[in-house]
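Handout, section B. The chain below has 100 residues.
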Amino acid sequence: MASQLGRDEVARIAALANIDLSAEETTMFARQLADIVEYAATVQQADTTQLTDAPSGPTQTHLPPPRQDSPAPSLERKDAMAMAPDARADAGLFRVPKVL
């Protein structure tokens, strides 16, 4: 499995994510990802046959009970659009800066 995570594979993944990596970073990430995959394979081999299901939810007894969920009126669309710095009220959309 580690052979699939060579420098070429890391470079391909970086290109898909639009991330520029130097040659040193590509080598470093290839090594780190191979180590992670190897560790995950080791964990998958652990014998879990003797384990029982754990209870779900919080186990702390000092927590208050959850509050009741009750419906409440929400903000009107025109009011929300009026507060947005760059909204397209005609389309009912909020515009935000592009994030890469």
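Note. The mean pLDDT is 85. Compare this with the example in section A.
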